[in-house]
Amino acid sequence: MDDLRLARAASPDTRTRAIFVLAARKPPYHVYGNPFYEHAGHGNVFSVDESGSLNENIQNYEYSPKSAIHGMVFDPTETFLYSADMWADKIWTHRKDPKTGLLTLVDSLDAPDIGDHPRWVAIHPSGRYFYALMEAGNRLAEYVIDPRTHTPVFTYKIYPLIPPSLNLRSKNYRSDVCAVSHTGQYLFATARSNTFDTTGYISAFKLGPSGQIERQICMNPTPTSGGHSNAISPCDWSDEWLALTDDQEGWIEIYRWQDEFLARVAHCDVREPGFGMNAIWYD
User: Fold this and answer.
1) Does the annotation mark 124 as catalytic?
2) Which of the following is catalytic: 42, 119, 124, 139?
3) What is the pLDDT of residues 157-213, one digit of tens each?
4) With contact defined as beta carbons under 8 Å apart, do 24 and 33 qualify?
5) 3-state percent helix, strand, coil for the chain, nearest multiple of 5
6) What is the pTM of this model?
7) Which member of 30, 70, 94, 174 is catalytic?
8) Mean pLDDT over the full length of the chain
9) Is 271 among the catalytic positions?
10) E strand or H helix at 9, and its extent?
């Protein structure tokens, strides 16, 4: 049955497609990826050669037959991998072997509510707190990492990613990504609108020294719905700058984060089909 699912996932007759990759920063520097939609019950591990080029698929590790993983994150030691499972409404924990880079299942945890659809995950640099963005729930859930099992434990703290007055129309929105700032003092998260004439939102949160969410600072409208994107990307070497991408119109914007206010300081249109899904910072 597993071989059949893998074969169906690769078939051009299905809508299964690659959705997410995460490159390890520690030896053996494997690349971890996920398919999405149907037949997506396995993640994939790829080895690399000395130049960093993909070498071969060395492991297809199991989730569940209902799974559709959209985002993953390693803990700071890169010993545990956490996955957001939209379709099975779960958060998965796998342990990474430090020598082989292969994964072993540790546990899975149900989302706070059925239909939340966890889409994106982030972890604090301390490794003590973990955050899961719920695409359909349009909210951010906080977890503490159990120091014994290294699995997330829900703290029952949840924050809205769209104005609470819009909850009756929550199906008009789908939350997108969350990310921790360079110093670990802040967390940012975004939500998209499903209609082009309605804006999405970007929220900022203050984090404590261990990563606990202390307060939601703001929830600002974004210039457009965000399309499929509205993805926020904090700068890798400073808390001062963030990038926001949009594929409704095709652009990237830079925001300055200063005194806990967001200010848009640059806008660049790129009118190419499909442009604007995600941004990375390069120094």
Assistant:
1) no
2) 119
3) 999 999 998 865 668 999 999 999 999 999 999 999 999 999 999 999 999 999 999
4) no
5) 5, 50, 45
6) 0.95
7) 70
8) 94
9) no
10) helix 2-9
